[in-house]
Design a protein that fits this description.
single chain; two-stranded antiparallel sheet; 2 strands; 4% strand; MannP-dilichol_defect-1; membrane; PQ-loop_rpt
């Protein structure tokens, strides 16, 4: 089977010449390896597409309310730090973009949210410094230069060694998890998920679960796999809490109610006196 050029080109770009010939041209659907690879690529592209919009509702909500009240600045700082390190690590490792592309979009969206949070707090100078620092930090981590020697060998130099970057990538695992634990505890304490976005929670869970599969299929990296496995576990807990507390709303004691109850008791006393 021959696909038109405008369909063949992207198909080959996604699954490669070998698997394209096997699955599309030869109809060899017993080629398990190519089928697994094709599924992985499809999932990867779906995750990247989801990552491109996952935090757009949160951005819109902040802009409409003109406040970021209730959103933890330290949590977003930690998450953005982890995203910047992970993005630089994957680029330096030359991993397929389908295995980490959503990290790029989440990083951009996090930077926008950080900027809005600080802007609506009246800290525009701090916002500029924080955003500039993250961009500068990511540039340092991700930049490398390859030089071809006279003997044909290629020498790669970078400001941050791959060994140091690997250590930083390993550190992003506890950082990412630490940012989820307070939210899980808060949900359990309140028996409610408050203002959490269901779209974001379930998208994160599905994405991390799919990332386990794509990493096993396309990337031979224990550090990245461990991070996605643990992230899936914690995202699963959040998704279960979202389902469990779906109809619950966070209720807090209201002082007005207390006054109202006092007033009603006074009324009862007056009625007794009249009797």
């Amino acid at each position: 089977m021959q696909l038109p050029f405008f369909l063949k080109t992207p198909a080959v770009a996604i699954i490669g010449d070998t698997c394209y010939s096997s699955l599309i041209e030869d109809f060899n659907y017993r080629d398990v390896e190519c089928i697994k690879y094709g599924i992985s690529k499809g999932l990867g592209l779906g995750i990247v597409a989801g990552g491109a919009i996952v935090k757009v509702p949160q951005i819109i909500k902040i802009v409409q309310a003109r406040t970021a009240k209730g959103i933890s600045l330290p949590s977003y700082m930690l998450e953005t730090f982890a995203c910047v390190v992970s993005l630089a690590y994957n680029i330096r490792q030359n991993n397929p973009i389908s295995t980490y592309g959503e990290t790029f979009f989440v990083t951009i969206q996090n930077l926008i949210i950080l900027g809005l949070m600080l802007h609506y707090s009246g800290k525009n100078t701090t916002a500029f410094m924080v955003l500039s620092s993250f961009l500068f930090f990511g540039n340092i981590l991700g930049r490398s230069t390859s030089v071809t020697q006279y003997d044909g060998s290629v020498v790669t130099t970078a400001w941050v060694s791959k060994e140091a970057l690997t250590v930083l990538q390993g550190a992003t695992i506890p950082i990412n998890l630490f940012s989820k634990i307070p939210q899980i505890v808060e949900n359990h304490r309140n028996k409610s998920t408050g203002q959490l976005s269901a779209f974001t929670i379930f998208n994160y869970f599905a994405g991390s679960l799919a990332r386990v599969y794509t990493t096993l299929t396309e990337v031979d990296d224990v550090i990245i796999l461990s991070g996605f496995l643990l992230s899936t576990l914690f995202n699963c807990i959040l998704a279960l809490q979202m389902a469990l507390y779906w109809n619950n709303s966070s209720a807090s004691p209201v002082k007005v109610g207390e006054k109202g109850s006092t007033g009603s008791s006074d009324t009862k006393k007056r009625v007794k006196k009249l009797d």
